[in-house]
Amino acid sequence: MGEEKREKDIKEEAKEIFKRFYERTRDIQKATTEAVKEIADKTLKGVGPSKETVREIAEGIQRTFRDISSKASEVVAGVLEGVEEVTRKERRDECLKIIKERRSVTFFDPRREVPDEVIKEILNTAALTPSGYNLQPWEVIVVKSKEKKKKLRKICYDQAKVEEASANIVLIANLKAAEDHVDRVLDSWVELGYITPEERDPLRDRILKGWESPERRKRKAIRDTAMFGMSIMIIARLYGLETHPMEGFDEAKLKRFLKIGKDRIVPMIIAIGYKHPEKTLLPRAYRFTFDEFGRIV
Ligand SMILES: Cc1cc2nc3c(=O)[nH]c(=O)nc-3n(C[C@H](O)[C@H](O)[C@H](O)COP(=O)(O)O)c2cc1C
After folding, report:
1. Which of 62, 216, 217, 230 is the most buried (most CB within 10 A)?
2. Atom of ligand 1 nearest to the CA of 249
3. 22-50: b or e for each residue (b if 16 or more CB lie within 10 Å)?
4. 250 lines ligand 1 (CB under 6 A)
């Protein structure tokens, strides 16, 4: 229903813009015709004209052109409005397409490698993900070598995609992100004028207090890191890449394998690569709709 309504709204909008544009174009056509007629009439009448007649003609022409130019700027404004509408619609459609296209791809093409530079670009863009107090509690280890992927596959309960994907991004939530990052964050806030130097230390205390309880610390770090993961999956699509998030792994073994400290949690691993060209995914499974999972109060 939502989709249908949006489609209808867009059509209505487009119709309105076109109508406005058409009306303005018609006005300018009329004004131009009138002006040309007036000029012709006055020029014909003015054979052997007196000074006054010449002035009258010149003023008439001036008036007409002023009128045309003011209409023209209206038309231009209308066109710009229309262009803006169309651009917005195109951008929205493009973004929706990217979001809707994302699937947890099971079949990667083991022959195609994603260059390190592309992975870094994706991760640097994903780092724009918001986080509580901008503490950015995420870290990653990209497992890319053949030999390491083979070992990781075992840790991931033999999920073949781990080895077939070009790389696996191990997402790590840093439980000490507040202590580790708070000063960098607050320094930049002072520098940018978000807060005054006097506000810095009291805010620092408040932030650290919010991370005091182990439970809240865990929740904050995992929440932000999971959002970072979602960004990676969406941005990967912009590069024509596919992903697969995974929670199926032995965390203790994984931590030993990659030397991840006790003050870190691994919420998921994201396999990344190109889809196998000869294999097809099953259709997307049922998704609950807003009427089932939400309410507006
Ligand atoms: C955090 C997380 C962990 C997941 N773990 C696994 C996994 O270990 N193995 C697997 O085959 N799929 C895993 N999935 C993929 C889900 O099954 C998949 O996203 C879901 O069925 C919806 O399919 P879609 O992503 O293609 O829309 C995981 C997804 C998420 C978000």
Report:
1. 217
2. 8
3. eebeeebeebeeebeeeeeebeeeeeeee
4. no
Cα 105 to Cα 35, 64, 164, 267, distances in angstroms:
65, 65, 11, 19
Is the CB of 46 within 6 Å of ligand 1?
no
CB neighbourhood size of 249 (10 A): 22
> Residues for the chain: how many in total?
297
Question: Are residues 130 and 92 part of one domain?
Answer: no
* Predicted TM-score of the model (pTM): 0.79
Any ligand 1 atom below 6 A from CB of 284: yes
Segments forming the whole domain that contains residue 67: 2-101
Domain membership of residue 7 (yes or no) is yes
Same domain? For 282 and 231 the reply is yes
Does the beta carbon of 226 sit less than 6 angstroms from any atom of ligand 1?
no
**Number of domains comprising the chain:** 2
Instruction: Identify the burial level of 266 via C-beta atoms within 10 angstroms of its C-beta, where 0-12 means exposed, 13-18 middle and 19 or more buried.
Output: buried
- Closest CA relative to residue 168, chosen from 268, 277, 280: 268
Q: Which atom of ligand 1 is nearest to the CA of 281?
A: 26
Task: Write out pLDDT tens, residues 96-136.
Answer: 999 999 999 999 999 999 999 999 999 999 999 999 999 99
Percent helix, strand and coil across the chain, each to the nearest 5:
65, 10, 25
106 Cα–ligand 1 center, Å: 10
